[in-house]
Amino acid sequence: MSYERENIAKMAGYVPGEQPEDADVVKLNTNENPYPPPRAVMQALAGVTADQLRRYPNPTARKFREAAAKVHGVKPDEIIAVNGGDELLRLVVSTFVDPHQVVGYADPSYSLYPVLAAAQDAKVFRIPLDDDWHLPADYVEQLNRVGAKLAFVVNPHAPSGRLTPVNDLRRIAEGFAAGVLVIDEAYVDFVDPARKHDAVQLVRDGLDNVILLRSLSKGYSLAGLRFGYGIGSAKLIKPMLTKTKDSYNTDAISQALAVAAVTHKDQAAETWAAVREQRDRLCGELRGMGLEVAESQSNFILVTISGRSLDAQKTYEELKRRKILVRYFSVDPRLADKLRITVGSTVENDVLLRAIKELV
Ligand SMILES: Cc1ncc(COP(=O)(O)O)c(C=O)c1O
Q1: Nearest ligand 1 atom to alpha carbon 31
Q2: What is the pLDDT of residues 99-114, one digit of tens each?
Q3: Measuring from atom 7 of ligand 1, which residue has the nearest CA?
Q4: pLDDT of residue 331
């Protein structure tokens, strides 16, 4: 006899990227930042006291919410701190979607979205992206037609890295009045500053159905810490903050380190510039080898391997044999001839480029 709820018994779980123990692997498969966290974060870690551990943390990460609010020009009650951006995704689904209601998202995108919807016993509605990974022009109409209660847009898009302009997002938010629009900005720190991309403006402008997801995992080199946050109208943040999140969802150490991180954004931004430089280099060299690389504003690139002696899957396997890990999405037909490669350090990218040159 199974004790699971029926939908849980039926669903499949999220499959995380490989996390090898082996230190000499060139790890370009889960989009970690190749550079260390901000110096201020390591100093805050050294300053953690026994008392901070003995006592419960602030339940809503008040100091972090104040610090993040200042950085983004919003109010602290428009911020929620979470145990990694993934927790925010779980919270939005469990707070705003009833079982059997519809969660919409562009396909392909982050494979956790349908898993969280399935756990809530919600229905999913996949809206295919066009061949160039753009959202279709009738994205909102499609969401409204099926009566979606919540929709995800990951921006920059994963796994292509394509950036949707804020005005397009604004049109989606305005047209999707009956639902909550989650803009997943896990990779937004790597967007070229010349683009002047700032989706927080939607919240500042009072669009009350928008929640932005931010993560310290990639931009701040803190994937091991598990800390992220949401930015949205107080109307959306409050039920998650006061009802659906765990009472102490973020711990004392991560709160202290997260405050140090966001108040020293300039230190993290040094790594964003370095990643962008390496991204341009990788794209240039791979295109120079005749490979197609999608235009990316993220810290990863999507490379098409076709018409070669080795296909994408074999290239992935050969790279792995050489202790270079990249991501291959075997189950999605649109991604079957592609590899998603995290932008690494100069040395890691040297190793990768040399191997790819030999293989393809
Ligand atoms: C598109 C996307 N959104 C959200 C997340 C969540 O990141 P985290 O839970 O590490 O903050 C990830 C992590 O890989 C991601 O790829």
Answers
A1: 14
A2: 999 999 999 999 999 9
A3: 85
A4: 83
